[in-house]
């Protein structure tokens, strides 16, 4: 999208006489396709403010959950404004329609969009502010603006001796008018972008225990709540031993809510102890009763009965597979996955007459308002949401159930209340990465891949999400229509909501040059609550596509690297990361004794990632020794953060590959805590090499793309090691 | 029944139920929110503090077991506004991502260095592997600990047995 500065920048005077630049950042995400941006009034969603005291404040419309937004976006402004990044104060935006990500239509952080969206406008905002300061100084000194320079918050006189701090100039700068475009710094002059400068701006607060997460919010007279939810999703609490619970020490109140039984006490531990004494009678009429076997049985039946929607068709796949010399078929099963953010779900709410305040570690404050208002007499615009630091998000905190719970308890008790989920509750009552079934068919002739047929069976994230989201897109709608709107969103997909590509992303973008391709989605939903999960659809499509490529290479009798490279002649960026990763991993040399290597390549969120995994089996357990990762994410803003996101993504993916499995038993989740929903530990951490391609292309996201390739790369390594192909996750030794 | 705790050098008398985990006493009674709740079952290390010089999982330590004890939390690690060398290293190496696990990571590392001033990589990994990090900051944690290994002398966890 080409952008003119006028389209996203407005200059004004702030209340305190400072210089205020209002910006409109475009967004993009996996939910954007097919969505038409509303025409109408221009709206800002981020602000850069310079005060006469010398403060530079950037109000950010994205949340910080570890992915580095806080640092990365600030760096862009700092570069062009010519101040040190650490001198810019960053504030999280309050909830307001102005902060909505315009292309998603909601205020949320997800889809690895922040850097791609901010790259151009934030640099231009910084450059414009700087230029106005320079013009103001030039007017004072009676010199040509073009002859002045800037350095670390000062405008310098052409004589090289005098200088003036920005703070003395902001009032004057307010009156300057920018005509035409302000040029951006050439690459060669960058001081901060692409440099290993300083540290993450939030590192100190996070190393001294002073960063305030949702769980740390403290309010006067605050009480604590514990929620007991139906052990099976969809069940309802009917009644419980209320008198006994209310008589327990410290208990303030206990009552049945739409989400389960709430126990409120003056101290957290007392709420927990009272909760343990609960005896609840449930109505399971609408509750799920499935077990894992049922889920995949359901998918299998669906794939047989319903060929699915064609999402990509080239050539004649049925024709070529019918006459294939070698026909290869495989079916892959991938389980439900939990996010397991280190900070469990929590929220704090305070209801007063005609208003509610909520403090929450949320990825979508906008939706938090709707969730908070849902079971109260308030409308969403009477709810204020304060976003805190997030102890991990990974997509989980896009769904606002935890906000809804705190709000409905607060509405009842009328004092500030903090609701914290236990780890067990967090594991069991999550919204999960959907379990998916993939059916693959490939045809080979003379060693050439002639046909690729990929059928995906499973739900779409928006099926679930739209119930929360629809009212946000129809702010005029009365509350009693919310659930109807949710259904409307489902019925007229593409109009009420964007087209949902969450099930097919990464599969439709199959990059290999094959003459006959078909990608289909059989849309079916077993009824388990789902949401986005770091890398979303790419996470399961990556495994299916790249494992099957490996199977095909094997059947073609070709090296898996060469097999792929041969079909990437027209995809230079894919080729390049694949070749680099292979080279750095010594692909052409035999691996050390007892180890094997596997490779995978996957593009997600505009970013190209190839990984080579070196693995073995020791004492009956899979050991990952080394992961080489080559990434092309366009222009790099902060190499350290790119590296962190790649290594973090690799470990996140390995946790899923080795252990990730949420299983259902008659509708109940079996796992509960970190002993049975394991994540990788330090002693299992492989050596990781991250190679970042030097690129001048526009930057793309890095928070998620490290995850998808590592799962198939490990599976492929295990195949090379054992000769046994694993088609079901998690992988077994 | 009142309990006595010496937290970061200051004595507190607390009237809470004896089975209340130390974690919630520190966080909610004393307002020391730097110590985090991750699992409540001794499985993740987010709640690690030093109790009488030993690393302890405060989520699984009833306050009665800590009665009379000396406790150091992340807030007490730095002294006179001087950051602990590990905290400095954490900032320099840019360790934290979401940051939620890091108080516990630093407390575990601080105990390691107090007892083994120059640990090798294996000792670091052995000492640290019980502290989970969902963001996957392990490589930078190792680098940060290694960067100060051998250079830490001034900090000693309060109490005996360190
Ligand atoms: S919260 Fe104590 S070990 Fe996890
Ligand atoms: S930094 Fe997020 S859990 Fe460790």
TrEMBL record, chain B:
Is Magnesium one of the keywords UniProt gives this record?
no
Q: Which UniProt keywords apply?
A: 2Fe-2S, Iron, Iron-sulfur, Metal-binding, Oxidoreductase
Domain 2Fe-2S ferredoxin-type, which positions? 1-77
Report the superkingdom from the record.
Bacteria
User: Is Chaperone one of the keywords?
Assistant: no
Q: Which CDD domains match?
A: fer2
Write down a Pfam family by its short name. Fer2_2
Please name the InterPro entries in this protein's record.
2Fe-2S-bd, 2Fe-2S-bd_dom_sf, 2Fe-2S_ferredoxin-like_sf, 2Fe-2S_ferredoxin-type, 2Fe2S_fd_BS, Beta-grasp_dom_sf, Diverse_Oxidoreductases
The entry's protein name is (2Fe-2S)-binding protein
């Amino acid at each position: 999208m080409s952008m003119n500065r006028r389209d996203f920048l407005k200059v004004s005077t702030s209340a305190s006489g400072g210089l205020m630049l209002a910006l409109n950042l475009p967004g993009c995400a996996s939910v954007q396709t097919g969505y038409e941006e509303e025409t109408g009034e221009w709206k800002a969603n981020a602000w850069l403010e310079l005060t006469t005291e010398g403060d530079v404040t950037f109000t950010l419309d994205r949340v910080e959950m570890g992915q580095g937004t806080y640092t990365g976006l600030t760096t862009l402004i700092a570069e062009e404004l010519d101040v040190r990044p650490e001198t810019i104060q960053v504030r999280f935006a309050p909830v307001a329609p102005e902060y909505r990500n315009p292309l998603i239509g909601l205020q949320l952080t997800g889809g690895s969009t922040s850097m791609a969206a901010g790259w151009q406008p934030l640099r231009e905002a910084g450059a414009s502010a700087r230029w106005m300061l320079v013009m103001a100084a030039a007017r004072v000194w009676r010199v040509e603006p073009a002859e002045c320079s800037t350095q670390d918050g000062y405008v310098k006189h052409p004589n090289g001796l005098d200088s003036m701090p920005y703070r003395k100039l902001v009032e004057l700068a307010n009156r300057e008018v920018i005509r035409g475009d302000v040029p951006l710094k050439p690459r060669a002059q960058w001081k901060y972008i692409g440099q290993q400068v300083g540290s993450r701006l939030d590192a100190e607060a996070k190393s001294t225990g002073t960063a305030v997460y949702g769980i740390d919010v403290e309010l006067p007279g605050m009480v604590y709540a514990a929620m007991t939810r139906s052990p099976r999703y969809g069940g309802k609490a009917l009644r419980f031993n209320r008198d006994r619970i209310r008589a327990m020490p410290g208990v303030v109140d206990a009552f049945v809510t739409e989400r389960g039984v709430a126990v409120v006490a003056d101290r957290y531990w007392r709420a927990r102890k009272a909760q343990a004494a609960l005896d609840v009678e449930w109505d399971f009429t609408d509750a799920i009763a499935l077990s894992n076997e049922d889920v995949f049985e359901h998918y299998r039946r669906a794939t047989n009965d319903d060929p699915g929607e064609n999402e990509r068709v080239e050539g004649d796949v049925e024709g070529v597979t019918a006459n294939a010399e070698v026909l290869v078929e495989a079916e892959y099963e991938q389980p439900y996955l939990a996010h397991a953010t280190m900070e469990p779900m929590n929220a704090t709410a305070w209801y007063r007459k005609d208003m509610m305040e909520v403090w929450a570690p949320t990825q979508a404050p906008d939706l938090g308002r709707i969730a908070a208002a849902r079971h109260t007499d308030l409308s969403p615009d009477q709810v204020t949401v304060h976003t805190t630091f997030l102890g991990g998000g990974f997509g989980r905190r896009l769904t606002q159930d935890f906000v809804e719970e705190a709000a409905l308890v607060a509405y009842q008790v009328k004092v500030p209340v903090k609701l914290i989920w236990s780890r067990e509750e967090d594991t069991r009552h999550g919204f999960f990465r959907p379990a998916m079934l993939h059916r693959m068919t490939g045809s080979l002739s003379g060693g050439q891949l002639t046909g690729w047929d990929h059928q995906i069976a499973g739900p779409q994230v928006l099926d679930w999400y739209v119930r929360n989201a629809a009212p946000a897109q129809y702010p005029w709608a009365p509350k009693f229509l919310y659930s109807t709107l949710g259904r409307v969103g489902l019925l007229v997909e593409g109009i009420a909501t964007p087209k949902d590509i969450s099930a097919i992303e990464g599969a439709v973008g199959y990059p290999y040059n094959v003459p006959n391709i078909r990608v289909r989605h059989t849309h079916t939903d077993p009824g388990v609550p789902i949401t986005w999960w770091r890398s979303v659809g790419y996470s399961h499509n990556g495994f299916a596509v790249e494992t099957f490529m490996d199977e095909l290479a094997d059947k073609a009798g070709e090296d898996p690297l060469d097999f792929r490279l041969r079909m990437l002649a027209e995809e230079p960026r894919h080729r390049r990361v694949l070749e680099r990763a292979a080279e750095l991993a010594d692909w052409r040399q035999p691996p050390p004794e007892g180890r094997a290597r596997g490779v995978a390549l996957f593009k997600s969120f505009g970013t190209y990632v190839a990984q080579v995994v070196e693995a073995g089996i020791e004492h009956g357990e899979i050991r990952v020794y080394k992961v080489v990762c080559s990434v092309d994410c366009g222009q790099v803003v902060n190499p350290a953060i790119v590296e962190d996101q790649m290594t973090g993504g690799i470990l996140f993916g390995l946790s899923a590959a080795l252990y990730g499995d949420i299983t259902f038993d008659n509708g109940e989740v079996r796992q509960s805590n970190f002993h049975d929903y394991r994540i990788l530990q330090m002693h299992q951490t492989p050596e990781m090499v991250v190679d970042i391609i030097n690129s001048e292309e526009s930057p793309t996201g890095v928070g998620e793309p490290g995850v998808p390739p590592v799962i198939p790369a490990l599976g492929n390594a295990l195949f090379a090691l054992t000769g046994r192909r694993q088609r079901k996750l998690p992988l077994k030794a | 029944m009142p309990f006595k705790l010496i937290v970061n050098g200051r004595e507190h008398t607390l009237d809470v139920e004896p089975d209340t985990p130390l974690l919630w006493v520190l966080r909610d009674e004393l307002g020391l929110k730097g110590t985090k709740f991750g699992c409540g079952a001794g499985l993740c290390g987010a709640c690690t503090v030093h109790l009488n010089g030993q690393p302890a999982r405060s989520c699984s330590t009833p306050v009665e077991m800590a009665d009379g004890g000396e406790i150091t939390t992340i807030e007490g690690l730095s002294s006179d506004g001087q950051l602990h060398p590990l905290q400095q290293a954490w900032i320099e190496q840019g360790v934290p991502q979401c940051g939620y696990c890091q108080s516990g990571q630093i407390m575990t590392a601080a105990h390691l260095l107090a007892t083994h001033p120059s640990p090798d990589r294996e000792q670091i990994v052995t000492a640290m592997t019980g502290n989970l990090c969902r963001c996957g900051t392990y490589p930078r944690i190792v680098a940060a600990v290694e960067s100060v290994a051998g250079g830490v002398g001034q900090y000693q966890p309060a109490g005996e047995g360190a």
